[in-house]
Specification:
Layout: H1 2-19, H2 32-36, H3 50-53, E1 63-71, E2 79-90, E3 94-107, E4 110-128, E5 132-147, E6 157-171, E7 175-182, E8 188-189, E9 195-196, E10 200-207, E11 213-222, E12 227-238, E13 241-248, E14 253-262, E15 265-272, E16 280-290
């Protein structure tokens, strides 16, 4: 038992050492729709997952919805990401949402690392006419980081907070321009050896050339890293099914997915490849209620 506890302690310390070279609370896609579009979702987000990609998109909601998502990044059995979000409109010009996101690492049934994020968001349409609209949204993130513990070692837990701000402009219901500023307040976590949480700026343009077709191109820059390109396309194959394809850089990845719609439920699936690691399978379920 003592040997196992020492081994567990070494794994935990290794995980913490890895944190110093990579962000905690990383920018893993929480929406299978977004993943299927190559992560290009800053301007196209149309469900409760907008709370993560661009809270300004909540202002255009046409009804309440609940979205639940689950994946094991790159097919690794020891990692998992769970996401749950609910959104609802307020009148015709505002929207609110709340979400819970948990990324966990475990070994031999023992939790080594838990990253939990609770987010509250609000959006409002600042201007709207028959041809265009401008909306702004903001979100408050409460980040909770907890490391595993054994009989001899407890690395403890820490909490911090971050602020997101998003903008969305719509022109003739065909072109949408989105902007997200993630963790605008530059949050850090930890007492003695604090680590920065990921900050990024994402800008996206989506265009609907035909009914049922959506294209989007996003550029995303994470602090200290190269700019990533995300692009994708969605086709409304039938009234019961949508198809998606996409590509992203950093690392290069081909993506695809589909949605099966049986009102008031949608089931989404997406797959993204990886140049070195196994691909990622991603499943989401959405329930919605139209106005």
């Amino acid at each position: 038992m003592r040997t196992r506890n020492i081994f567990l302690w070494l794994i935990i310390m290794g995980a913490w050492a890895g944190v110093s070279h990579a962000y905690v609370f990383d920018a893993i896609d929480v929406s299978s729709k977004a993943r299927g579009m190559g992560g290009a979702w800053t301007a196209s987000a149309d469900d409760a997952s907008a709370i993560f990609y661009n809270p300004a998109c909540l202002a255009g909601s046409v009804g309440a919805d609940i979205t639940a998502s689950y994946l094991k990044p790159n097919g690794q059995d020891f990692e998992s990401l769970t996401f749950l979000a609910a959104a609802a409109p307020i009148g015709s010009s505002q929207g609110v949402a709340a979400s819970y996101r948990k990324f966990g690492v475990e070994y031999a049934g023992q939790d080594l690392l838990d990253e939990s994020t609770l987010t509250l968001a609000h959006s409002i349409t600042l201007m709207q006419d028959v041809h265009s609209s401008i909306a702004v949204g903001y979100g408050l993130n409460i980040y909770m980081l907890e490391f595993g513990r054994s009989q001899y070692v407890d690395l403890g837990r820490e909490t911090t907070w971050g602020v997101d701000v998003g903008f969305l402009g719509t022109l003739r219901d065909r072109t949408r321009i989105g902007l997200l500023l993630k963790n605008l307040n530059q949050p850090e976590i930890g007492k003695n050896d604090s680590e920065p949480l990921p900050q990024w700026i994402a800008a996206g343009v989506s265009y609907k050339p035909y009914y049922g077709v959506v294209t989007e191109l996003d550029l995303r820059g994470l602090r200290g890293e190269d700019i990533e390109a995300h692009m994708g396309m969605q086709f409304g194959l039938t009234q019961f099914m949508d198809l998606r394809f996409g590509f992203q850089t950093g690392p290069n990845s081909l993506t695809g997915g589909f949605t099966v719609k049986v009102a008031p439920v949608e089931i989404d699936y997406a797959y993204s490849s990886h140049s070195v690691l196994p691909g990622t399978h991603h499943i989401s379920v959405r329930g919605f209620l139209r106005k």
